[in-house]
Amino acid sequence: MITAQLQQAIEAAQRLSPHEKYQLIEVVARSLTLADTLEASTATFLRGRTLDELIAEQQPPIITDIGALAADFWPEDESADDVNAYIEAQRRAERDRPR
What we know:
Structural class: mainly alpha
Largest sheet: none
Number of strands: 0
Number of helices: 4
Order of helices and strands: HHHH
Number of domains: 1
Distance between the termini: 46 Å
Helix content: 55-70%
């Protein structure tokens, strides 16, 4: 069943020159290719992957020395209690914020 909108598009396309018709076909083909690629990517994403598949895909580094994760960034004038109090205040403010 051809919709009125599709019928209008067909009639408009028939009035195009041969070169314009080829351009139209190229644009529609690119659009379909992009849509197919997006659909395939979405399907792959939504199907879920096993942990082994994710590891193979992302190739995360293997940490053999826990010291490699250490960082010297903690401000000397802040205690862990200060940070925890800040986080708690932020969470409270978020919880109390009108929706």
